[in-house]
Amino acid sequence: RFLPRPISGNTQELIPSNVPEDHLKEPDKSSHSDEQEPLVYGDALSQAYINHHHLALGVRQRLLAAQRREVESAVRSAVDTPPPCPRCSTAGSPAGCQRCPVTIVMWDQAISVEVPLFWCQDCSSNYSIQPTVVDCLPDNRTFWDVSRRIGDNAVLWWHRTVLQQYHQLTCLLRRVSADGFCAAMLSNWEKNGVPCPSSVPVSSLRKRMHLAQLAYAHLQSL
């Protein structure tokens, strides 16, 4: 059964007669003040951060370790199944203990690996796995095959996730400088407790990332 209830002027609203009067009152907005207050103003956030700091640090270290294991595993698996020679497609064999040091650049850390070299009997030359095996791109044509490395030049392979991140930022913000991005990346390594390897040329990092970014942009256009 519905009873007429005036709400304004001559307008009437049909309201069930069995609805308690207190349910018809306006909600108390003060009761939602805690929900609307930013978490930063509460003590719970600071206390939880202090209490769980060591647990959170352990989680981060395990995530970084998992990254390293996956990359190192991909490189090691190449020894078990040697890739074919890029020149003649003949199956090669490991070239003894010859390896080339490579630094894989990621946003959260830099990972140093030893990339094995292989020997092609038909071509009588060495060759290596290509950086795309570990989802990376080189910043130099020579480093596409690290067996061609000359002298002590540092070999950097840029993981595509970090190139993707820079590409997205420049497309959306258009005010991200390569110098600022590289500086932020180095700072992120430090905050993660990962020292910058001596093989990373900090002074030329921006230029080398730009070259790797050109390769990334080319792949995006395919």
Automatic annotation (TrEMBL):
Renumbered residue ranges of the record's region Disordered: 1-37
Comp. bias regions, Basic and acidic residues: 20-35
PANTHER family listed in its UniProt record: CXC3 LIKE CYSTEINE CLUSTER DOMAIN-CONTAINING PROTEIN, SI:DKEY-29D5.2
Protein name as catalogued: Uncharacterized protein
Originating organism: Astrephomene gubernaculifera
